[in-house]
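Issue 218. Parser rejects a valid record. Input:
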Amino acid sequence: MKELELKYGCNPNQKPARIFMNGEKDLPIQVLSGRPGYINLLDALNGWQLVRELKKATGLPAAASFKHVSPAGAAVGLPLDETLAKIYWVDDMGELSPLACAYARARGADRMSSFGDFVSLSEVCDVDTARLIKREVSDGVIAPGYEPEALEILKSKKNGNYCVIEMDESYEPEKTERKQVFGVVFEQGRNDLDINRDLIANVVTVNQEIPDAAKIDLVIALITLKYTQSNSVCYAKGGQAIGIGAGQQSRVHCTRLAGQKADNWFLRQAPQVLGLQFVDGIHRADRDNAIDVYIGEEYMDVLADGAWEKIFKVKPPVFTREEKRAWLDQMTDVALGSDAFFPFGDNIERAYKSGVRYIAQPGGSVRDDDVIKTCNKYQMAMAFTGIRLFHH
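Output the parser choked on:
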């Protein structure tokens, strides 16, 4: 098949819409269920590239949760401890396969942003992963294949309208890519840069020690940034992205946004949050929203108007600013990647507040000395990769 007609483009008024191949090749995808849209396919094809590269770089199954052409989360298939299983709402599922662990991590890092995601999987989708996807609000999934039972589970989602796409694992695109904007054709060599640990060899700080686990996290951060709308910054820890700041015009705003998401990921693990008692029958998304409010500054307003009774069985105590800061001070050994150089040390100051100890960025700013000095102030290890990773 060389062409696939779509319902419409980015918006309902943008018709007609299709994807197609020039030349002799067929489309590298097969739609097994549902009817994917224009943005669905942008998410699917970007997400597939991301998880394919994560698997190549780490040797582990990988998953990504995509929304509006940027990842909300990306991870490899490391086991979940009891706390992570609980905050990702999978503690009732027993022991999960490595692929399911990867998706639980990718989906769970930023559950607010992952709501209605498009899933990308590096491996044949197994039953564990299908069961996990089945109960989340999601638009579709792309994978190199599906176990028969897993496919039936996914086909039953959304009354048979859930998008299930099979990717040709052997497909390789042309070296040159093109797109059209306002009738003008843009052409460039595709970004086939191989991201691996070699990019982290040039450590420019006093602290030269980057342990293997941190190198894996930095590689995960850089590969994630390669498929994130720029400007972008990614915090990673324990084999997954924990905070992604995408599409900001200012780099420090990327750092703040991603840092806030990383903070929220860690705050969800605090005893105050783990001890919340929700009313029976509350939806998963409502729980996520309630937690986001609880760890935010506006929770005092919720307590004041009595809205808590609709969400919690017992009125939770206020999670004070001082308590949250004390908990966040325990978050350490976080890795941080940036798709372009840090122009000022303020990015490092903000990163430090979220437990960052290891950094990978291109370098090349006229203020590199100031950025290095700020890293040395906090005993951080920073590598200059020499490679920019803008994506648009």
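Fixed in the parser; the record now loads. The mean pLDDT is 94.
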